[in-house]
Automatic annotation (TrEMBL):
UniProt protein name: Cyclic nucleotide-binding domain-containing protein
Superkingdom classification of source: Bacteria
Transmembrane segments: none
Position of the signal peptide: none
Length: 155
């Protein structure tokens, strides 16, 4: 399975050898529109890289409808909670459109990372960068939704 054109962010983060090893255990999956990929608070045992379509990440807000904090598309990683104990989803995710993706078994990837420390470092940096971006995006989105004047002039 080739990854070069399908997952540009992973291509930038991982060496060709490590990309190839990960793609060797990937499987292609399809999700119909409005399919719930995972729920906040549940066990994180898979992750995906989007080939086509859009996935909305959401956050539970007590007393309100879940807030969409980010939309993900082509080449983006869906899910990072699988890498960090206790392997519980911190957000939820729904296919907003029909989605085609590469699916990875988290236990298998963690085992590969444990067996190959360099792969583990590359995956950790990749997922860490995604996590930092998602945290920033979530903060901005929540300020837009719930702060008195939005995130406009706040730093």
């Amino acid at each position: 399975m080739t990854i070069t054109t399908a997952t540009p962010r992973m291509v930038q983060a991982l060496s060709a050898d490590h990309r190839g090893r990960l793609m060797g255990i990937a499987r292609e999956v399809d999700f119909p529109q409005e399919t719930r990929l995972f729920n906040e608070g549940r066990r994180a045992d898979h992750f995906w890289i989007i080939r086509t379509g859009t996935v909305a990440l959401d956050l539970s807000v007590p007393g309100r409808r879940a807030a969409i904090v980010e939309r993900l598309g082509f080449g983006e990683l869906v899910g990072w909670s699988w890498l960090f104990k206790p392997y519980i989803w911190k957000l939820g995710a729904t296919a907003e459109t029909p989605v085609r993706a590469y699916e990875f078994d988290a236990t298998a990837v963690r085992a590969m990372c444990a067996d190959d420390p360099e792969l583990g470092r590359e995956v950790g940096r990749w997922v860490g960068n995604v996590l930092a971006h998602r945290l920033h995006s979530t903060r901005i989105r929540l300020l837009d939704l719930y702060a008195p004047y939005g995130s406009g002039g706040l730093r």
